[in-house]
Structures are given as C-alpha cells and as structure tokens.
What does this fold into?
Amino acid sequence: MKVAEGLAQQAHEAIMSKLLTLMGTDPMELLPQHRHLLEFDFLALGNGPTEDRQYWIESMKSTLQASGKRYRSDNIGGDPADNQNRHKRSRWL
It folds into this structure.
C-alpha cells in the first residue's frame, strides 16, 4: 500500500472518483453565485495537491445542499471507469 500526502492509494482513487463525478454536475443544479465552481481549471486541480481536490469536493457538496439538492454520497465513488456515464444518472433525491 503506497502512501502519498498521508493517504493510501485507495483513498486517492476515491477522491479522484468523487471529483470526476462532481465535475459532471449540471450548472443549472447550482445557484448562480456558485456556478463558478464548475469553471475551475480541472487539469490543474487534478494535478495539484489532494487537499485542493478535497476542498473543491466539500465546496461542491455544500453548494448542492444550498441549492436545495440533497447530496447522496453513495453515488459518489466506485469505479472511475463508470464516471463517464455517471452524470446521466440521478445523484439527488
């Protein structure tokens, strides 16, 4: 088990999976003042420190809650290969 930035490889993969899933959020699901979160440089975010990715994920979760959507963490994660179509499935109750 490799450890980087204090996290095991599996933890890094879970964070990347969450990031990829949330990147597919429809901007119309967010309040106008929060849509800037979907205008990030995701290449830089993906290549940057894990802490930055974790912060962005938590910001998105908070933003979705503020917009009246209920965040379902059970739909965030899993196989990164599934993330291409995951945005088409409902993540909200």
